[in-house]
Amino acid sequence: MGSSNGTSNGTGQVFANGKNIDVEKIAVSANLPAQIPALLEQLNADGIGYTITDTEARLKLLETARSLVYALETPREAIIRHCWSESTSYAALETGVDVRLFQALGTDDTPKSVAKLAETTGVDPALLSRLMKHLAAMGAVVETGSDEYAPNGFSKTLTEERYSDAFPLMTSRFTQGIIALPAFFKKNNYRNPTSPTNTAFQMGYNTDMGFFGHIQQEPITAKQFNNHMGVYAQGRPRWMDPGFYPVQEQLIDGAAIGEKDVLLVDVGGSFGHDLSDFRRKWPNAPGKLVLQDLPEVVVSVKEAHSSIEVMAHDFFKEQPVKGARAYYMHSVLHDWPDDVCQKILANLVAAMEPGYSKLLVNENVVPSTGAYWETTSLDMIMMEIGSGERTEHQWHSLLESAGLKIAKIWSAQRGVESLIECELA
Ligand SMILES: C[S@@+](CC[C@H](N)C(=O)[O-])C[C@H]1O[C@@H](n2cnc3c(N)ncnc32)[C@H](O)[C@@H]1O
């Protein structure tokens, strides 16, 4: 006999809405059987006309394929995927990064034996054989025979540090905080976290330090963080690309910018990847570009374009560049709760020239439905440090509270940061 209130009493039977529900049967049946025929049809339709270079079509196909997997997968399989496979493949990948396995596997598509890979990496062949089997089962390498593997696009990408650094970075500075989230929520009575000094990050890493102070403690971690910042948004539309934000009309035209004037200040701009991208895409845009970040970060910027001035600046202090055409912040405000953002914004508002300067905020605008998984994942990561991604309403309320008004929110693709164009109110 099942429970009568819709919760299981451990018998596998639940009585809810006048019906006996067999949870044990549900656990081993497809998750959303009713959706499978329509998703199969959709997958066929999405595949028609697909070409390998058509990003939009590829994303659509991927999204339908993912929905189909979620519909076909049984709850038991979903539990195993979440609880077994994601953490263990992460461990195998991070080990691979650590021992330079992906460099040993190479980029030339020639299969290599485990014996050869063990010799190159110095890993015990018996251990490597087990790790490789799991990496192949999880799609990270290609199994070509017994104890023999070839690389794929993913493993080739991991041969470069700027991509593979994500793994040791997450372990040393994020994952323990994420794992601490449930206990942190419980301890704080399930209140939405909004303080940078009482966070799951501090609980998970057993520290009183704030996230950015902690990260700067070790140069290797700071390098990994900035490398990850430089690549995580690659391959997606950027605001300076055609069809996103009209740079010429909105930023350049109508602004009499001489060579010595500042066109763009990237506040908290890390190693300057956004400004370099901008300069590459807009080689003739007039004026200077200024890259600002903490001294510990900008000290590592060695090869900036001649039009990029690199400046150590703490954004909690007075903004030294006055009256720039635009101040720009990418993924900065999402690191901080509103009261801290107001302090950062106040320094920019004070430097902006009325009727001329703009503030460009390159951040996610979380939609009311259908938020993309990359956006919601990032929101959970930010939750760990007491902040988060914001909805349109939250952006209005934050920016207006700082004396700004949103002129327009420019967006290009689901899951990609918008460009929130602001002026002084
Ligand atoms: C999430 S990262 C974003 C980096 C870059 N804008 C991007 O999108 O790749 C946040 C940046 O803010 C910088 N930052 C943190 N605290 C800062 C401060 N007080 N003053 C200036 N920059 C700071 C960090 O060093 C880091 O580069």
How would you describe this structure in keywords?
single chain; about 425 residues; alpha/beta; seven-stranded mixed sheet; three-stranded antiparallel sheet; 21 helices; 14 strands; about 15% strand; globular; binds S-adenosylmethionine
Outline of this structure?
The protein has helices spanning 23-27, 36-47, 55-72, 75-98, 101-105, 114-121, 125-137, 153-157, 161-164, 166-173, 175-179, 181-187, 200-205, 211-216, 219-231, 247-252, 273-281, 295-298, 338-351, 373-384, 392-401, and strands at residues 13-16, 19-22, 112-113, 142-145, 148-150, 262-267, 288-293, 308-312, 326-330, 358-363, 365-366, 390-391, 404-410, 418-424. By secondary structure, it is α/β, with parallel strands linked by helices. The chain has four domains: 13-74, no CATH class; 77-159, Winged helix-like DNA-binding domain superfamily/Winged helix DNA-binding domain (Arc Repressor Mutant, subunit A, Orthogonal Bundle), CATH 1.10.10.10; 166-230, no CATH class; 237-424, Vaccinia Virus protein VP39 (Rossmann fold), CATH 3.40.50.150.
Describe the structure.
It is a single chain. The protein has 21 helices and 14 strands. The longest helix is centred in the N-terminal third of the chain and has 24 residues, at 75-98. It starts with 12 loop residues before the first strand and ends with a strand. The chain has helices at 23-27, 36-47, 55-72, 75-98, 101-105, 114-121, 125-137, 153-157, 161-164, 166-173, 175-179, 181-187, 200-205, 211-216, 219-231, 247-252, 273-281, 295-298, 338-351, 373-384, 392-401, and strands spanning 13-16, 19-22, 112-113, 142-145, 148-150, 262-267, 288-293, 308-312, 326-330, 358-363, 365-366, 390-391, 404-410, 418-424. The strands form 4 sheets. Strands 8-7-6-9-10-14-13 form a 7-stranded mixed β-sheet, with helices on both faces. A hairpin with a 7-residue loop joins strand 13 (404-410) and strand 14 (418-424). Helices cover 46% and strands 15% of the residues. It has 4 domains: 13-74, no CATH class; 77-159, Arc Repressor Mutant, subunit A; 166-230, no CATH class; 237-424, Vaccinia Virus protein VP39 (Rossmann fold), CATH 3.40.50. It has 425 residues and is α/β, with parallel strands linked by helices. The model has no long low-confidence stretch (mean pLDDT 94). It binds S-adenosylmethionine (SAM).
